[in-house]
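[SOLVED] Need 3D model of a two-part complex

Original post:
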Amino acid sequence: MLELRNITKGYAENRKVLINLSYTLNAGEYVAIMGESGVGKSTLLNLIAGLDSPDSGEIRINGAAISSMQDDAATQLRREQFGFIFQAFHVLPHLTLAQNIALPLLLNGIATDCVNQMLEQVGLHGRGHHFPRQLSGGELQRVAIARALIHRPRLVLADEPTGNLDPDTAHEILQLIRREIKANGATGIIVTHSHMAAATADRVLHLTKNGLHPAQPGHNL
Amino acid sequence: MKPPSIFRWMMISEWRAHIMQIAVALIAIAIGVAMAFSIHLINSAAFNEFSAASKSLSGQSDLQVRGRKAFLDEALYPLLAKHSSIALANPVLELDVAVPGKQQGRNDHKLKIIGIDPFRAAQISPDLLGVPEEGETLDRIASDTIFLSPAAMEWLQVEQGDALQLQAGLQAITLRVAGGLVRARAGQRIAVMDIGAVQWRFGQIGQLSRIELKLKDGINHAAFKTRLAKELGESYWVMEAADQEARIANMSRAYRINLNMLALVALFTGTFLVFSTQALSVIRRRQQFALLRVLGFTRQQLLRQIIAEGGFLGIMGSVLGLGLGYAVAAVAIRFLGGDLGTNFFPGVKPGIFFDPWDAVIFFAIGLSVTLLGSIAPALEAVRARPALALRSGAEDAVMAKLSSPWFAVICLSLALLFTQLPPIFELPVFGYLAIALLLIGGITLMPRFAAWTFASLLNRLHHERIGAVFTLALARLANAPNQAAIALGGILASFSLMVAMAIMVTSFRVSIDAWLGQVLPADLYVRAAAIGDQGGFQSDAQNAIIALPGFDRVDFFRTQQLTLDINRPDVTLFARPVDKEDPRNTLPLTDDVIAPGSLPEEVMPVWVSEAMVDLYGYRVGEKVVLPIGAVPSEFLVAGVWRDYGRQFGAIQMQLTDYQRLTGDLSVNNVALWLQAGTSSDTVVASLRQLPFGAALEISRSSDMRALSFEIFDRSFAVTYLLEIVAVVIGLLGVAASFSAQILARAKEFGMLRHIGVMRRQILVMLTAEGGLLTALGVVLGFVLGWGISLILVFIVNPQSFHWTMQLHLPWGWLLAIAVIMLISAALTALFFGRKAVSVQVIRAVREDW
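Solution:
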């Protein structure tokens, strides 16, 4: 599903964030990536999403080299095959919940009939006409999850999805993310500092300067 | 850290981060203050110089005696000279004399000649004494000499000793320039002659313009003025210097005030821009302010912070504006003159005078409007609850209170009420207030209107059909109307005012076009250089013209000036043949008229201009007494006519009535209708061959129309300039607002890019937002502008200039302005939208970068 081949990325001559990183992720897998701040977790997500280009190396999504695609092609791929969940939710304040969730469908030219069903799936049944300002943090993240999955993406990228939530809500959200990713048959990557979040993934990877490695049992970050 | 340091810290960091928005607001305030200040400086300079020049002609007299007609009989002079309370009586005859070869058909081709008695004038107005060559003192009382001011010498291109030719009626008069008037004011074009010489050479025997009086010591001026007025009777006016000043001020007051109001439009637009800058800044810094509140910043400190930031902006903008205004005024007065090309203050050359108090007042106005623009956003910021404000996502609710319909309803209701109120001191104060309230009310309604319009549009159009980009654009406009409306405030104000002015000017122009068709029905108009109160054509000259071949009809006109109120400029009297069966065939009458055939035979009818109704209270069917003829006579007001040529009043009467009352058979103008097939060139040639042909001013009606429109367009050139300035300020506001909003929406664009929205789609979305919003602004601006134009056409103009007009909408011009606005706003959005697709927006969604 996702192949990272010898990825190197730096922001200055002497500040390489990722060096010669390689990894392969299979379809349907749900992995957590952990690592210290500044080690390049978000950079890695940007590269996978085609929002940034590696200095060298190649990234393939289902065999397509997103890292060498033109912006429009990468955007098209992202639109169809990716779902994003952010730490700060990033739902549009001027759209209703239903409109926020329907965005990927509209972008892909798909009918929006399934929005209510998705709202029900994420526990927001009957609130499609509400605006984001009427929601709590946990509810906002449910909207973001619904938006990330509504168009049945092949790859879901979640960047610290529970960083702004209390532990109880975080737990609920993490379970929801896992359940929905699995229900949709998608591949998922969750970037997190939280062991609780990481524990919901099938596998936990540790990003260091030396690359991505399976985390040792009991490893304390 | 002490509060003052926090203040500096926050202001400097905010300004540094948003230098463009701050610069635009600063420029808007500066331009607004500059326009208002420069117009004030120019008007003051011209008015003061005109007033000073007029006063310099009156000398140091205590009182003046004038006739109710333009001239008075000199028989009064010896009576006053011998009066026991009068120390000195100084007779003056003042004439505006045509100069051959100078521009014809306008007010600037005449030389003001003042006839004085040098021996008496030496005591009362010594500035008017000419300086002859050494040993030639008698030139002051010679019959063929004239003394010219330096400006007059320069204008006429003559020097001491040269011959000067002038035109008096059909006669050419040659005089010798005997010397100069060294104490004349700079730019003042005047000439002085001996009073007897003026009376004789210009055919004004026995006539005086006024008699200036110096009272004996100990005489109470006010009491004597009343007593003398009673002694002299109703045929004369007795006035003081203050009356003269009021009269001069009245002449140009409406023009000056209307121009000042127009100049304030730019400042008014600037206020909206400051408001939008401050409001968007408050929205952008909502979380920052909430954090400060959490950390212990009091509400008062926050209020002071935001208002002080606005205050600094106001101080800098106002100081810049004062400097710019002074420079603009200096340049304008140098190249366009004190009346900006409108010829409202002829014969003066004013210089700009910097009055510190005026500067302080305009500085205070600039600062006040800036603070006014800052108050609402500041109050909104301090009202915000920190816990809620710390959360993102409710930015649009920040300004929700501003969209309360009640405020708008109150403004609009008051505006409606004010349109029904009469003028104050003959000024349309309530008219202007109604315009301001209409604008404020209309703009306040904008968020609700935008929300309603775009929500309806969004509901009607199915998401799938319009796609994600337009759904996003429409949803934002429908659900976040406050920010959008804030961005549009300045442009809405300037656009609606431009629409209003365009409608008013077109209505005026079309009405003048129709009016000229009625008042200039003949093919040719001939006049002799009028002198004083005399008609240039005596009976023999009239007969010579009638005897010429090629005319279908010949009408003669007699014009004269009447003083009906000493505090007001003179009223013009037209005596002409008026169609008795139906005066509408002769005069541009309004509906206020006695029906044809209902006029009693025994009365003398007069038709008065609309200004006479407003200023003198004349009513149709009423009998009035006018000083025409040896004794005042009674006339019946038979109708009201439109007069766009004289805002201080004019009266039309039958020429036969005039001639019977006065015995004066001379006329000033001749209207000639050519026979079919007769060429105007042939007729002009035959007129020129008359013995007095060379002295005739002959104009084709088409030339007179063209000249009228040239003057009209020149008069409104300043108006157009001020309107364009206001629109540019409005567009700058759109640029600043878009730029600010795009920065504030970085995370939104970042998220959209993540979920697959392409760069060009974001640009299309922003262009659509800008275009749709401006389209709505154009629609609302048109409605508002139309409403304002109704106030301008039906309230401000009649109350200021005392004339009415028909409403005409310049559809082509309005459409062109709307398209230009739409394109400008969409391009502005597109230009600033480039930032929205930069790499930085993608990173903006990352919280832990």
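Edit: The first helix of chain B runs from residue 3 to 17.
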